[in-house]
Amino acid sequence: MQLFVNDLTVIDFSYLCVDRGIVGESWIVDVLLDGTLNDENMVLDFGIVKKQIKSIIDDSVDHKLLLPTQEQALSVSSSTDNINHEYVDFSSKRGEYFLQSPQSAFAKIDAEEINIESVTHHLHEIIMKELPENVQGLTLTLRPEIIDSDFYHYSHGLRMHQGNCQRIAHGHRSKIKIYKNDERSTNLEQQWCYRWQDIYLASEEDKISVEQVQLSQNAKSKLNPDHQFFSYTAPQGRFDIAVPKNVLEIVDCDSTVELLADYIARQLKSQAPTSTFKVVAFEGVAKGAIASV
Fold first, then answer.
1. Verdict on whether the full-model pTM lies above 0.90
2. What distances in angstroms separate CA 68 from CA 15, 92, 183, 219, 230, one per listed residue?
3. Class of the 2-292 domain?
4. Cα–Cα distance between 66 and 169 in angstroms, integer?
5. CA–CA distance, 212 with 208 (Å, rounded to integer)
6. According to DSSP H, which parts of the chain are helical?
């Protein structure tokens, strides 16, 4: 007997990639269970699937930075600045990234590369340990949203968020719709998706000096003039990141989707003051904000 739940959840996260750096991503999760019927004549109660399995997936990878622990370009060590925090040093073809975050902000994936296969295997092992004996099989399908227009990948953190959005390197794969004078402009959409492809979005308010940043000794020895530094303390702990300028955009607001929609609208308005603009900005799958100027 099989039980399925499609669109169980969406995981929004970032991951380290040698070619692309820190990449924001959003995957939809479908679940298929194989098993015998229990005393309630069910493989598993839908309520348990939707709550327990979703919770395991969210706790394991959602709003985290996924680390490919077999990748030689990655170094992870315990922080000497804060208890239960870790340093992450990573070298990519786009530049070197250095972080400090609470341990809970990272997910260690035993693989050379973060991809659908490695993350699926990671989640499968964790979930199977929590399922009742009558459930003998689990099939997880992780899939990106089908988008018929342009989209971009971005990473960020929200210092004021009380939940997991406060983590300084989580992200999303997002589409965008831009209307100029009430007509959709695919040209403007393409421009912004190119501008923000694999971008790190940081708030001006969180910018700090090299003297203030908390990173590993290895990181401090490798910093160069192209690095910019951002940090904040949130309910989960202290967060620090050093990001190369070529993969960074500093915005004059917090990086909530509401304010990012407004930021894009204001940028467009400054370039064409006599035109009107509406920006429909998405944060991952099927959610977002609208700003008009």
1. yes
2. 8, 13, 43, 18, 23
3. alpha beta
4. 9
5. 6
6. 46-48, 54-61, 116-128, 186-195, 217-222, 257-271
Transcribe 222-266 into DSSP letters. H--TTEEEEEEEETTEEEEEEEEGGGEEEESS---HHHHHHHHHH
132: which DSSP letter? -
Torsion of CA 235, 237, 243, 248, to 10 degrees: 0
Tokens 């327990």 — which residue? Answer: 52
DSSP letter, residue 215: -
Tell me the mean pLDDT per 10 residues along the chain, length 293.
89 98 98 75 66 93 98 98 98 98 98 98 94 83 97 96 95 98 98 98 98 98 97 98 98 97 98 98 98 97
Q: Are 264 and 291 in contact (CB under 8 A)?
A: yes
What are the structural domain ranges in the chain?
2-292
